[in-house]
Amino acid sequence: MADSVVYLYAVTDAAPVEEPADEHALAGVDETPVRRVVSGDLAAVVSSVDPTRFSEEALRRSLEDLQWLERTARAHNAVVAAVARSGPVAPVRLATVYLDDENVRVLLNERAQEFTAALDRIRGRAEWGVKGYAVRTEADASPQVTEESRPGTAYLLRRRAERDRAARGLQDASEAAEAAHRAISAVAVAGRRYQPQDPRLSGRREEMVLNVAYLVDEAGAEGLRRLVEQQQGEHLRLELTGPWAPYSFSTLEEGP
C-alpha cells in the first residue's frame, strides 16, 4: 500500500492574482500540510493523507460519524476560504481522494475546460447569503367578544383570530420576500434558492420565508448592502451574510 493518498480540496488558477499566504502553513484534514499540484493554467489544492483512514471502506464508515464529518468539513472549508483570498477557487465535494499526484494532473487535464469555465464564472465575484424572516406583530385587532359570549366561545374566537393573524402575517412576509428577491436578483450575477430552514436550525423564532445565495461582483458589495437595507419592511426582516467563497456557484462534484 502507498504511504499516502491525495485529498483534493479545490481547483484554482496556477498563477494566483495575489501572492497567497504560505499554504503549507495551513492545517488541512487530519492536520496535514496543504500544497498545490499544477498542470497548465490550473492548480489543484491538496494534501497527503493516511491511506488507511481514507480508503473506500474507511470513508464509508467515517461518513456516518457526525463528529468526523464536522471536523473534516471545518478543515476542508478553512482551506478553501484561505485559498479564495488569493483568487477564484472551485471547491470539490468533501472527502474526494486520489491515489497520487499524477491522477490529480490527469483530472486537471481532462476537465481543464470545465474547471476554467467555473473559475471564470466566479472571478472577481463573491457569494452573499440573504435570509428573510416574517415579522411577528400584534397589530391586528383582537376579535369582538360580547357579554353574551361564554368563556369557551371567547377562547375559541381568540384562538381563531390568532391563527388568522399569523396566516396573514406570513402571507404578507412571503410577498415582501418575493419582491426583495426580484430586486436583489436584478443586481446579482446569479442566485440560487434554498429551502427555508426550520426554526430549530435557524435559531430564530420567526418563520423563515427566504433563503437565497447570490453571486455578486466585488464592486457591487456596498450597493447590495444598501439594497438589502431598503427591502426591510413592516412584514419582513432580512439578514445579509458574506462575503463567502462562492460554493453555491462553483462546487465541482468530482470523484476519484
TrEMBL record:
The entry's localization annotation reads: Gas vesicle
Keyword Ribonucleoprotein, does the record have it?
Answer: no
Its primary localisation, in coarse terms, equals other
Q: Does the keyword Ribonucleoprotein apply?
A: no
Coiled-coil segments on the chain, per record: none
What keywords are assigned to this protein? Gas vesicle
Enumerate the Pfam families for this protein. GvpL_GvpF
Query: Into which family does the record put it?
Result: Belongs to the gas vesicle GvpF/GvpL family.
Stated name of the protein: GvpL/GvpF family gas vesicle protein
Could you tell me which species this protein originates from?
Pseudonocardia yunnanensis
